[in-house]
Design a protein that fits this description.
- This protein is α/β, with parallel strands linked by helices and 471 residues long.
- It has helices at residues 3-23, 27-35, 42-51, 53-66, 77-94, 101-116, 122-125, 159-171, 220-225, 231-242, 257-265, 308-316, 332-341, 356-369, 376-386, 449-455; strands at residues 130-136, 141-145, 148-151, 183-187, 193-197, 207-211, 247-251, 274-278, 290-294, 322-325, 348-352, 389-395, 401-413, 416-430, 436-442.
- The strands form two sheets. Strands 9-8-10-11-7-12-13-14-15 form a nine-stranded mixed beta sheet, with helices on both faces. It has a six-stranded antiparallel beta sheet with strand order 3-2-1-6-5-4, with helices on one face.
- β13 (401-413) and β14 form a beta hairpin.
- The protein binds adenosine-5'-diphosphate and magnesium ion (MG).
- Adenosine-5'-diphosphate binds at residues 131, 144, 146-147, 218, 223, 226, 228, 251, 253-259, 401.
Length: 471
């Protein structure tokens, strides 16, 4: 949509809002906002949201009257922003509405957001802590912050308003949402992933889900501070990455796998060439030499799909020092294990599983589903030869995420993969306010990989592995 069309569509929507508004109470309600001296910040924004749609509509209309629409596309966006700011100021003064400075600014911002941004959710997109924005029809918006869902006070005027914003997002990538294609995946300019699904598939109205990219992710020190990993464990995980162990992070959905993968990847030495493969780019590696690859879904004609397997195979031809796969969930497991077995040490990935043993089953199942013609034992041998360590993460009943188990793969015991637990989180109870209590303990087994760490110059105090040692 061109800037001009966008302008017009905002205008037609707000005119409608104004008509609706004028049937009830109009400008006076805007004055009331100020008149009753409500505080600032959130409550003002919301009060303005609720009661000044008439004012906003008038501002829009007068802006369109004053700005030469024919020139709109040729004006630099920044200039336009400034001009619109002036017009809003002038109008607010002309209308003689006694807005406080903070109210005026927030009104100005709202009008800007409507015209150039994603309307009421625009401020959420600028909050560095918001990782997901979930719009469930026009009147309910949830956000996720640090892994917790919160209901916000943000609302769209109506479903039509929400549809306009959805249209704006998907039209940027040349897609559209309507009855004939009621589901769309798109990406915002900042890399955030967007999914929209509308009626008739979504029963109650349009649904928009945004997974933000570039949100500050937790590093290993953050995870230690949060109690998600103990200092002793963190040392070992760091060392294991440096010593090029092949590691699999397992856990349920939202248990913190990707976050831990990202935090651990930070310890890959800067001089190495890292290739990442993901279904939806989430990893944010800080090293200078990183090549990021992302899959592509099939197009409307069902063609052009590029799978994780294609990308893993391609990655192997790119002379990587390390391959990091965001999550194995399909046939790429074969290529990943093969890569691990053939000299691409230090590869890292995650898998969806309920415990470390389940993670092994899951890999086996994925291999089976790939149709590879190998007897089960051969598959397990391949898994056991490829992997060195499984780190299991879990989301506990109090919402905290923890590394609950670090296990080492030590080979085969007849037909099964032999695994030994090195560290685990021992749950001891629940506090009065519902917090999970427990401590991180060593199992008493000195891992075989301790030697590999030593060889790589990483010192591991033997005491760290003494039985019952709180690490
Ligand atoms: N240790 C942690 N403490 C608090 N929040 C966490 C922790 N690990 C992850 N999170 C948050 O939980 C959410 C899900 O994490 P993510 O790593 O994407 O999980 P997964 O990859 O297992 O689905 C994210 O919002 C993330 O910021
Ligand atoms: Mg993940």
């Amino acid at each position: 949509m061109s800037l001009r069309d966008r302008f017009r569509s905002v205008n037609s929507r707000t005119e409608k809002a104004e008509r609706e508004d004028s049937t009830g109470n109009t400008a006076s309600s805007a004055v009331t906002v100020d008149g009753n001296g409500k505080g600032n910040g959130k409550s003002v924004a919301n009060a303005l949201n609720d009661r000044t749609s008439g004012l906003k509509a008038r501002i829009h209309r007068r802006m369109v009257e004053r700005i030469n629409l024919a020139n709109l596309d040729s004006i630099a966006p920044e200039m336009l922003r400034a001009q619109i700011g002036h017009i809003i100021n002038a109008l607010v003064v002309e209308e003689g509405i006694p807005l406080s400075e903070s109210q005026r600014l927030s009104l100005e911002q709202e009008v800007m957001n409507e015209t150039f941004g994603l309307g009421p959710i625009e401020p959420l997109l600028h909050d560095p802590d918001v990782s997901d924005i979930l719009v469930n029809t026009h009147n309910q918006v949830y956000i996720e912050r640090f892994g917790q869902l919160e209901l916000t006070e943000v609302k769209f005027d109506n479903d039509e308003h929400l549809m306009k914003i959805i249209d704006r997002i998907v039209s940027r990538i040349g897609r559209r949402v309507d009855e004939s294609s009621p589901m769309v995946d798109a990406r915002l300019l900042d890399g955030s992933r967007v999914n929209a699904i509308i009626p008739p598939l979504a029963l109650d109205g349009p649904i928009l889900s945004i997974r933000r990219f570039g949100v500050r992710t937790l590093n290993l020190s953050d995870l230690m501070e949060l109690g998600s990993v103990s200092p002793g464990m963190a040392e070992i995980l760091k060392g294991a990455v440096k010593a090029r162990l092949n590691m699999l992070i397992s856990g349920g959905t939202g248990s913190g796998k990707t976050t831990l993968l990202n935090a651990m990847s930070a310890f890959i030495p800067v001089e190495e060439r890292i290739v990442t493969v993901e279904d939806a780019a989430e990893l944010q590696l800080l090293q200078p030499h990183v090549v990021r690859l992302e899959t592509r879904p099939q197009n409307i004609e069902g063609k052009g799909e590029i799978t994780q397997r294609d990308l893993v195979r391609n990655a192997l031809r790119m002379r990587p020092d390390r391959i990091v796969v965001g999550e194995v969930r399909g046939v790429e497991v074969l290529d990943m294990l093969q890569a691990m077995n053939t000299g691409h040490d230090g590869s890292l990935t995650t898998v969806h599983a309920n415990n470390p043993r389940d993670a092994l089953h899951r890999l086996e199942t994925l291999m089976l589903l790939s149709g590879v013609n190998l007897p089960p034992q051969a598959m397990r041998e391949q898994i056991s030869a490829a992997l060195d360590v499984i780190v299991h993460v879990s989301r506990m009943s109090d919402g905290t995420r923890r590394v609950v188990d670090v296990s080492e793969i030590v080979g085969m015991e007849r037909e099964v993969v032999a695994m030994q637990e090195i560290f685990s989180f021992k749950r001891t109870g629940i506090s009065e306010d519902g917090k999970v209590l427990g401590r991180y303990e060593a199992s008493g087994i000195r891992p075989k990989f301790a030697d590999r760490l030593e060889i790589s110059g990483i010192s591991v105090p033997a005491s760290l592995f003494s039985e019952g040692q709180v690490i």
